[in-house]
Amino acid sequence: MFSRSLMIQLSLAIVLITSAVLTGFGLYRYQKNLQKLPDQLDQNLELTAKRLSISLRTPIFNFSEYETRDIILSEMEDPNIVAITVFLKDGSLSKFVYGRSIDNKPAPVKSFIPKNGEMHIRRKILYETDELGIVEIYMTPKYLEERLRNVFFSDLSQIIILDAILIFLVILFVRFRFIRPIMLLTSAASEISKGSLDQKIDVKSRDEIGVLAKSFTIMRDAIQKQIIDLNNEIEERKEVEKKLRLSERRFRQLSNATWEAIVIHDNGLILQANELYYEFFGYSEEALHGRNAIPLTVTPDSMRYMKDKIASDDPGPYAVIGKKKDGTEFPIEIRIRAMEYHGRMVRVAAIRDLTEQKKAEEELKHLRNYLKNIVDSMPSILVGVNEQGQITQWNLEAERTTGVVSSEASGKKLGDVFPQLSHAMGKVLEAVKNRQVQKDTKVPLQIGRVTRMSDITIYPLVTNGVEGAVIRVDDITERVRIEEMIIQSEKMLSVGGLAAGMAHEINNPLGGILQNVQVLSNRMRVGLPKNEQVAEACGTTMKCIEKYAERRGLLSMVDMIMDAGKRAAKIVENMLSFSRKGQGRFESHHLSELIDRTIELAGSDYDLKRKYDFRQIEIIREYDQNLPEVFCEQGKIQQVFLNLFKNAAHAMVVVKDSARKPCLTIRTRFENHMVYIEVEDNGVGMDEETRKRVFEPFFTTKEVGSGTGLGLSISYFIVTEEHGGDMMVESSPDQGAKFIIRLPIHPVQSEGDTDSMVTSSFRQGS
Questions:
Q1: Do the domain assignments include residue 198?
Q2: Are 470 and 533 within one domain?
Q3: Which of 85, 515, 516, 534 has its CB surrounded by the most CB atoms within 10 Å?
Q4: Host domain of residue 318
Q5: 471 CB neighbour count, 10 Å cutoff
Q6: From the CB of residue 521, how many other CB atoms can be counted at a distance below 10 Å?
Q7: Mean pLDDT in each 10-residue stretch from start to end of the chain (766 residues)?
């Protein structure tokens, strides 16, 4: 049923469309010929009357009655002529009247009365300057109409034959190209559903059906793997249960040998506990048997704190206050894990006495705070490391710069916490070995989303036999930035003007070359009415011209010219890119801020004010306040927004309706891990053909010289290829247009993109 339905639908669709088009064309041509029929009859009457008046003048002048009748009868061989009347001025002949008999043969009649629809003409018979008589001719259009109908029905029969051929070809194509592979997939899916996972899927196609077959194969292999994994998991679980029974027998021996109190309980009801647990809290095993031990062994505040932590599945450790049987309170640390015990889920807790540890910690805390205040008061980044590269000191300035607190950085590798300084470990070893200060100046460090220039100084340090060094980092970004601004300004003064001038001088002739080459290519194409008319006027055909151009290689030469022009345009673009300052790095940005900055830019730059005042356009912002940052290249994303704003403004400024105020609506939202940006205008909109080609390079609806057709194609490339997103458009004529951009929030990294990797790892604190 599926295959028959699909074949019938496709066949009917093609036949109906073809029949409708061909039949419509035949009806149109038939109606046109009917409209031209009166003019054609009029022309035939004129030619026949002129010919007959010339043919009759000699026999009438010579008074030859038989010759006159023969000429009239000869003319009436035309079935469209229904009557001919000849009136003579003088002579032996007075009048000839010929009409049609019952069998449609020409015959003399006494008189003739024309019918409705029949046309006639009168013309004088002249011999030199003398008028010999008058000839009248009557014609009927019914034979011409009958011939037109015959032609129409002949065309209709050809359409029916063509439809039959199309049905046969479509059925064959659909059956072998689509239905057969689909039926193979259906059969394979049925076998797989019955458990036959070794079923072979023999569909070798590179289209969507091939992709579907590949997906079926992947699904089959995945199911097979899951079954194998499930069997392995069952075997592993049996082994674990066996080991668990053995471990339960050894639990009491091991728990009594540990330095921590261990207890297994079910909502506070003790199931098992070691001897140290009872010693900690001063209870005997019999005293806690069958009772909820938690309220008896911790303070009420600690009990509420523990319940909140346990409810959130936090295993600890928890630093709480324990309570002995005699009411004495002391600090303890508890770690809790869930476990299966005799077929039910319970909790096991490990408890440590922190009394002595708390005293030592208080003493160390005072000393550390004193030393930390000294180090944190320094305006520079101070990082202490040992010979293994582990961090021993991390001051407040380092915390502010990296966003990593001292507790997280301490003891970790310098390259893991502060990857920008990983190269300094070689200098650290050299400084410790030689007991000499090492210093690097103007070192670029990627701090957050910006690059900071720093001076790095390494001081060797020997304390209590532990060798290491102190790394001091001083920020000199502002000083270096001023120097770079001076250098960049000087370069832009020379290179920027040169690049802009060269681009202007090259683009004008280059645009003319590319445009004329495109026109030349179009004028050598077969199928354009104007080309066919001019070729026919020159005594040839476009097929002959195309054949000549192909044999002489003219078409390939045109393509070579176009390719060379495009390469030249790319060179000009590279020159302009060189004159612009920008690092082109992917960083996290708030799209709402980028959009607002681009709107400000559109209102003042890129010569937009020469054609319209962008600031007079109403801007409606519908931003998602919870929109996450997007990892992107700021300059290129702004270029995309600017191209959309310019196109929207152009589309709105050409609207002839003065009552419609130009309005640009910009929306942002977050959905399915993607950020959506919508730019909607109330301009002239686009038809279906324009909407399909809007992202094609060099396609533009603007007049020649006003657009290059590259803005949206470049924007599409930036969004899809460079940022891994999507770009689409929705539009209808006179209904405005809405461009939709989807961007991923995570970075799109290519191989060797070390700057993006460093920034990402630093932001995540890895």
A1: no
A2: no
A3: 85
A4: 258-353
A5: 27
A6: 16
A7: 57 74 75 74 82 82 79 81 80 68 78 76 81 83 76 77 77 73 74 69 67 74 79 81 68 64 79 77 78 81 80 79 84 83 79 80 78 78 84 84 84 84 81 82 74 83 72 79 48 48 72 82 80 85 84 83 76 52 71 87 53 77 92 86 87 76 92 92 87 76 62 82 88 90 74 35 31
- Boundary-marking domain end, from 120, 146, 172: 146
Question: Is 84:70 a contact under the CB 8 Å cutoff?
Answer: no
DSSP at 318: E
Are residues 600 and 507 part of one domain? no
Encoded tokens for 333: 């640390």
pTM of the model: 0.29
Find the CATH number of the domain harbouring 656: 3.30.565.10
Residue 671 domain flag: yes
CA 29 to chain centre: 45
Q: Looking at the structure, do residues 706 and 727 belong to the same domain, yes or no?
A: yes
**Structural domain includes residue 348:** yes
Whole-angstrom Cα distance, residue 755 to residue 586? Answer: 9
Total domain count, the chain: 5
Do 489 and 449 belong together in one domain? no
The DSSP-derived string for 240-298 is HHHHHHHHHHHHHHHHHHSSSEEEEEETTEEEEE-HHHHHHHT--HHHHTTSB-HHHHB
State the Cα torsion 547-553-557-560 to the nearest 10°: 110
* Three-state SS at 141: coil
Within a domain: 245: no
How many CB atoms within 10 Å of residue 249? 8
CA 242 from centroid of its chain's CA atoms: 56
For residues 57 and 129, state if they share a domain.
yes
Strand order, beta sheet including 391-394? 391-394, 381-386, 466-475, 450-463, 438-447
